[in-house]
Amino acid sequence: MANPLDDQVALVTGAGGGLGRAQALRLAQDGAHVVVHDRDADTAKACVAAILDAGGQAENAIGDVTDFAGLRATIQDVERRLGHIDILVNNAGVGGGQPFEEITEAMFDEIFRINAKAPFFAAQAVIPGMKRRGHGRIINISSLVALRGKANNPHYAVSKAALIGFTRCWALEYAPHKICVNTVVPSFIATPMATSAFGADYIAERGAANPMGRLATPEDVAKLVAFKAGPDADFIAGQTLSANGGEYINAMCLGAHRQQVLRQLRPIARTRR
Ligand SMILES: NC(=O)c1ccc[n+]([C@@H]2O[C@H](COP(=O)([O-])OP(=O)(O)OC[C@H]3O[C@@H](n4cnc5c(N)ncnc54)[C@H](O)[C@@H]3O)[C@@H](O)[C@H]2O)c1
Question: Is 156 a catalytic residue?
Fold first, then answer.
């Protein structure tokens, strides 16, 4: 039986990490040849091995997304060898976690360079090929923090909000070329990014506070990415969609929970100085 992404090529940045690996596995399961891009060679190779073990198609591309010329060269090399890149998932990102008054210019620049500037130039590099083919999907991985704000992380929040802005601009500019650009917004998920910054008690509390009684998983996000990449999303452009079990509306409605979250973040931020 045909798979929804047969004969398509997807490039996922940060695909060695928690969310990116799940996205890469799911896109491969749906039939895509996946280019697993990450600066961490070990995790990228492990992701490729998992895809190949499952009978899928994948290759790794080791590099830093902030090496804009290097990423463009990788994209051009894939296009030369495989003919096209149909799907770009701008997933690579780093957290911040500093109180506003302690954020240095170097911290601000680094987070914007990885989370916002790199997706900008990655998209610029894949667009010409997608235009030639008259088909493409760009999926930007933002964060709920971009929508609702967060204490002790304004630079991260706004770097992620930038992706929502890019999505809307690119969606308008490239819809005539049948290139659909969308944002996927994960909620809090216990990947290495989260577990390196928060303790087990806090993570358990966040899961319990979710209206569905659990944290989102990388697979919850991967399902949404696969939908946005697939044929059923061929008329969806410029949208921001989240799989969060109701966490977003819950936090907006329940001030007590929000205050609780803020109280818990302050001591954590102090320990990270
Ligand atoms: N985990 C969460 O709670 C959460 C919530 C909302 C949004 N997100 C977003 O999801 C995305 C994935 O996060 P994650 O939780 O899987 O984090 P993670 O730390 O598990 O994985 C991130 C991956 O990106 C790679 N990476 C980081 N900087 C890179 C760079 N400059 N060049 C190349 N690769 C780089 C890392 O090596 C790692 O493999 C990020 O953009 C993050 O902001 C995560």
Answer: yes
Q: 2 C-alpha to center of ligand 1: Å?
A: 31
Range of the domain at 156: 9-195+217-246
Strand order in the sheet with 33-38: 57-62, 33-38, 9-13, 87-90, 136-141, 179-186, 240-243
Question: What's residue 265's pLDDT?
Answer: 53
Strands (E), the chain: 9-13, 33-38, 57-62, 87-90, 136-141, 179-186, 240-243
Residue 3 lies in a domain: no
pLDDT value at position 267?
A: 45
Ligand 1 atom closest to 44 (CA): 39
Pick the atom of ligand 1 nearest to 186's CA: 6
* Residue 242's CATH number: 3.40.50.720
Report field, pTM of the whole predicted structure over 0.85: yes
Residue 32 lies in a domain: yes
User: Is residue 262's pLDDT more than 90?
Assistant: no
Ligand 1: distance of its center to the CA of 121 in Å? 17
Residue having the nearest C-alpha atom to atom 1 of ligand 1 = 189
